[in-house]
Amino acid sequence: MTRNQPFRPAALRPSILAAILGIFGTLGASAAQPDSELTPPKESPLDMVNNLHTAFGEHHARAVHTKGIMLVGSFTPSKEAHTIVSAPIFAGDTLPLVARFSLFAGVPTLPDNAGPASPSGFGFKITARDGNQYDVAANNHNGFITATVDEFAVFLRAVGASGPGVAHPTPAEQFLDAHPVSKAFANSLTYPESYATATFFGINSFKFTNAKGESTFVRYRFVPHAGEHYLGKDELKAKGENYLQDEIASRVSKEPIVFDWYAQIAEKGDKIEDPSIPWPETRKLVKLGTITLTKLPDDPATLDKRTVFIVAAPHPGIAPADPMLVLRTNAYPISLGQRQ
Length: 340
Fold this sequence. Notes:
The chain is of the alpha+beta class. It contains 9 helices and 10 strands.
């Protein structure tokens, strides 16, 4: 693997929150535990969609990760996945999958080589034999810019107030100066040579339970078979405005794009409910399976318009373990409805 020098450039429904709080109460002493009691965010899902529009504008499109490209392929589970999770998609069958790579910001015409393009996104939907759909979303950055939904809302409003002509330090700059973890995030973003050469990380935590009733917290990681390759500042400037979209379409027409899906296992003291803090690299990785993308869909525009990733939908053996994750799930359908 190679890494070039990176370029810096309605409140939760009570029943859902209660379910999350209950997750933490059911784990044994050997499992990682959250450092603080979870409380519902002040921001509602509609507030979050509106905050994204404040930051990026209203384009009657996805509120975030607007510019993207759809692909189709399959998921094949690993033999060891069942040791930590009982969900049927890990039972052994190869299953159909639709995926979407995207740029971060909520701007449909955003150049692929612009600062707000990072972190890139990778979402996919696996359809099980019984018709149930399992949705996952990840970014090519290990961590998140804020610890909570409410902090993220403040950041988005600061971005919206920091347009051209605003005196420095802008509200966004002031926010970053006051939040060291957020500033470190912004200063460490990377820009991949290809969507196929970036490692993607699940932002939030899940509770996995296996058939024996044993539970643990995990975060997702997706490692490319093509290896990791990122662009330096000069290399990024030399790329075209659609280099990621064009490259991935050309690549998949010649060969499959393959990622291995891992669960990173939390240990005592790891931040379960704080996505801004990555877990140590010493944590165990359990391979969940392999994602193979083989072609563009027959009607990509229609598929893109109707696709939404319900990332916190509960499934046997899989449950959300972070209020931010659940709010994301409730916000995405609002954005879906607005773009129809």
